[in-house]
Amino acid sequence: MPVTSAGLLLWRGAAAPAAPEVFIAHMGGPFWARKQAAAWSIPKGEYVDGEDPLAAARREFAEEIGAPAPEVEYVDLGEFRYSSGKLVRVFAGAAPAFEIDELVSNTFELEWPPRSGRHQSFPEVDEARWVPLAEARGLLVAGQRPALDALLRHAASV
């Protein structure tokens, strides 16, 4: 059974003539510290079989961003498969007024530097912001990029 995650892809702006902006997050920790390309993600996290994916996506958003997910209507854009086989289910929500004053992400522990015997805490997310969709294509991890096309199709229909 593949690992399954659920995430929220917030957007604002028009579908045409300019593409919307999307709210994405830079992954935290030393591996991603100096990377930008393919080092950003839709705020998301794993959920277990039987758990409501949208509820999980909302929970994970709050844990990674430090603010509750906006109370907007969410549309299921579908599941997207990573090359590793992991699946991410993405829900899109138009949230033109959403802003955060401060990013407060949950943390994870990692032995750092490697083989040092020392463990350090790092935030799961170290930055989150609105970016133009075209810019997001280069920033997002490859497995999430097809969700941007699904968002454009949805945004064009509303």
UniProtKB/TrEMBL annotation:
It holds the Pfam family NUDIX. The keyword ATP-binding does not apply. Keywords: Hydrolase. It comes from the Bacteria. PROSITE patterns: NUDIX (PS51462), NUDIX_BOX (PS00893). The keyword Hydrolase applies. Residues 1-153 form the Nudix hydrolase domain. This is NUDIX family NTP pyrophosphohydrolase.
